[in-house]
Design brief:
The complex is a heterodimer of chains A (about 300) and B (about 130). Chain A contains nine helices and 13 strands. With about 300 residues, chain A is α/β, with parallel strands linked by helices. Chain A has two domains: about 210 residues, Rossmann fold (3-Layer(aba) Sandwich); about 70 residues, no CATH class. Chain A has a six-stranded mixed β-sheet, with helices on both faces. A four-stranded antiparallel β-sheet of chain A has the order 11-12-10-13. The two termini of chain A are about 35 Å apart. Chain B folds into two domains: about 70 residues, Winged helix-like DNA-binding domain superfamily/Winged helix DNA-binding domain (Arc Repressor Mutant, subunit A, Orthogonal Bundle); about 45 residues, no CATH class. Chain B is about 55% helix and about 5% strand. A two-stranded antiparallel sheet of chain B has the order 1-2. In chain B, strand 1 and strand 2 form a beta hairpin. The relative contact order of chain B is 0.11. The chains are: A alpha/beta (about 300), B mainly alpha (about 130). Chains A and B meet through helix 5 and helix 6 of A and helix 2 and helix 3 of B.
């Protein structure tokens, strides 16, 4: 099966700064993948490259098996919801819908109408709440029946209630259309709720990639008295080490059960796991001089 | 009519698809769903819980592989087997007796842990001759 999105050594430079670099990944068709990472990690750059809005500086990528710049026809099958759900603010809901219908070769009026039941067709887009505007933008992007759906920070500016409503609508649409979905987001709880895969980016590079369930299965938190750490049976790699007073806390990747009774073994949450992989001491490589502090805003 | 409504506990640490599987099995055990009943459609569940449709499909596939439900193309997923013990109709009477016993255990000053331990130990003992 052709992957929905694949990148080989993909890089994008903005003036002198690399927004994305050495990015190699494969997103299988039908997956729902969370693209996570701190600000300036390269999430938006990756989505804009996949949506054919940017040209790679180096490397290459394939969208539904095709190069979006060489074969822009593939973009008819890609739905892209940019950050902030930009729509013409002076249009009414029905004008925005008509505009989307006329500018897309494929259009499913029924699914759009079903999703917009709550909104009055005569309301001006500019007067809609952020939640409603985001829902409108989602309905219009699903109307083209995309095989690949790219969402850039769709939860930005939404309160928890609007956020849940958006997710319900999104998942209902996904159940109907079965597209591959890539959601760039800071909101971990929602990523964990809806995504079966996750790609962690930081400073333009892929730091971790995999199935959420298998990542949670293959990592554990070990708690024990502070001591010099040798090899621990069952541990493949120590991802993060923390100590406070006499206590030692390790976040580890395991390759078997940790049976040593001097460790208390606990499961790890997705958020904790992802944060561990982008902790400053892991990101220090390869150039310690670029000590830009990471900010994780939600 | 909806025979079953799922709920999620995100803090339980149990994978979402397993929570759905457990809730179906529990309903089967208690007899709240019966052979022939339709499970909520994938679309209904995801619109309700805001979860990934693949997760619901995975839960239903697991239930199907255990022979508890069958998927009928284009129509939905239906209960095909039950987990309710044939003794289900005895439950009310047994429960009433158990409540009486629990009341006397509580009067005697046993806490929940001790009550559970006593029941487990007695159950093990009662089953032993049968197993031998």
């Amino acid at each position: 099966m052709t992957p929905a999105l694949s990148a080989w050594n993909l890089g994008k430079r903005f003036h002198r700064v690399w927004g994305l670099r050495h990015c190699t990944l494969t997103i299988p068709e039908g997956a729902i993948v969370g693209l996570v990472g701190p600000n300036a990690a390269g999430k938006s750059a990756l989505l804009a490259l996949a949506a054919g809005l940017l040209a790679p500086t180096e490397g290459s990528l394939a969208v539904l098996g095709r190069d979006p710049l060489a074969e822009p026809a593939v973009l008819a099958e890609v739905g892209f919801l940019p950050q902030g759900a930009p729509l013409y603010r002076s249009f009414t809901v029905s004008q925005a819908t008509e505009f989307a219908r006329r500018t897309n070769p494929r259009w499913d009026a029924e699914i759009v109408a079903g999703m917009l039941e709550r909104l009055s067709p005569h309301t001006k887009v500019g007067t809609l709440s952020t939640g409603d505007r985001t829902q409108l933008a989602l309905a219009l992007v699903l109307g083209k029946w995309p095989r690949l759906l790219l969402l850039d920070e769709p939860f930005a500016g939404l309160d928890p209630f609007a956020c849940r409503e958006f997710l319900q609508l999104l998942m209902e649409g996904v159940a109907l259309i079965s597209p591959t979905v890539v959601i760039a987001s800071h909101v971990m709880a929602d990523i964990e709720r809806v995504c079966d895969g996750v790609v962690l980016l930081a400073e333009g590079r892929v730091r971790l990639e995999g199935q959420v369930e298998s990542l949670l299965e293959s990592h554990r938190v070990l708690l024990g008295p502070r001591r010099p750490i040798g090899a621990i049976r069952g541990v493949r790699e120590i991802v993060r080490e923390r100590h406070s007073g006499r206590q030692l806390t390790l976040l580890v990747e395991v390759d078997g059960p940790v049976l040593d009774p001097s460790w208390v073994v606990e499961r790890v949450s997705l958020e904790e796991l992802l944060l561990a992989y982008i902790s400053p001491d892991r990101l220090r490589t390869p150039k310690p001089s670029e000590g830009i502090p990471l900010q994780w805003h939600g | 009519m909806r025979v079953l409504q799922f709920h999620l506990d995100p803090s339980s640490g149990v994978a979402t698809y397993l929570q759905i599987v457990q809730q179906v099995k529990e309903a089967l055990r208690l007899g709240t769903v019966e052979v022939g009943d339709q499970l909520p459609t994938v679309r209904d569940v995801v619109a309700d819980l805001a979860i990934n449709p693949n997760t619901v499909a995975k839960a239903y596939r697991l239930l199907e592989s255990e022979g508890l439900v069958v998927a009928r193309q284009g129509r939905g997923t239906f209960v095909s087997s039950t987990l309710a013990p044939p003794s289900l109709h005895h439950h009310d009477a047994l429960r009433a007796e158990l409540e009486l016993w629990l009341a006397s255990a509580i009067r005697a000053g046993l806490d929940d842990e001790s009550i559970r331990a006593l029941i487990s130990a007695t159950l093990r003992q009662a089953r032993r001759p049968a197993a031998a």
